[in-house]
Amino acid sequence: MNGQGFTVTGVSKTYGGAGEVRALDGIDLTVGEGEFVVLLGRSGCGKSTLLEIMAGLQRPTTGTVRLGGREITEPDERIGVVFQDPSLYPWRTVGRNVELGLELAGLPKGRRRAVAQEHLELVGLPDAGNKYPRQLSGGMRQRVGIARALATRPDVLLMDEPFGAVDHLTRLQLQHDLLRLWAEDTRTVVFVTHDVAEAIVLADRIVLLTPGPGRIARTWDVPRPRPRTLGDPGLTALREEIYAQLEDTGTWEKEGQPR
Ligand SMILES: Nc1ncnc2c1ncn2[C@@H]1O[C@H](COP(=O)(O)OP(=O)(O)OP(=O)(O)O)[C@@H](O)[C@H]1O
Questions:
Q1: Which of 110, 225, 236, 237 lies at a C-alpha separation of 20 to 30 Å from 256?
Q2: Number of domains the chain is built from
Q3: Which residue range(s) make up the domain with 166?
Q4: What pLDDT digit, counting tens, does each position of 21-40 carry?
């Protein structure tokens, strides 16, 4: 276990400009060391805003975020971030993309190579190092994004719809691989999705956000062993409960697609 916990206290965010948008209001959230928390909610409820604030990529209008007791006000070496679009540099090989954070950290070239290769192996791409991103599938590129985030050995992984752009089967495989990586080296994970099934398969705890402004409506513990299948009766009940709560907010259609 090498994770660190987050404490989000009274976080609100209002985007300025012509039409003010209250994206978040009064978010209080604790994520324990080594815990896998999923932020679930429809499009526009402030999931990305909250994740970016936790990553130090944005400042809240009010409130604070602490990681291991230290306030987060800017990007932090203890935090790795994975977005839906892995944004790989097309002119760099896959290996050199994974090396990016290590370059910034000043690691010597030979060591960078070795660490990048080690992390490509970890995500199931042992032979991809000398290829270019365009030679990989979408799912493989997303794995490279994960390898890049893990290569600097962050204590915490923040993931914003990381599997949102890949096909269903690839998505299931990536979920499985992520859980394997997490089990091998447990670190704190905060994972954003609007997919109820994905939340149930992955999370220790599901945090449901509702929009206008984004607030925490409810949280659920998912006390089932992994790997989980949605056929598990305990999970079917939970799934129904989450959908019922979403329907209460009048903004959801069954099977996880926001209107
Ligand atoms: N840079 C910005 N400037 C102004 N408004 C913004 C900005 N970023 C987000 N918003 C607004 O804040 C609200 C929350 O957006 P956010 O992207 O955090 O939600 P989300 O739940 O992650 O949505 P999605 O699932 O579609 O990514 C939305 O109303 C959005 O339009």
A1: 225
A2: 2
A3: 1-78+155-259
A4: 999 999 999 999 999 999 99
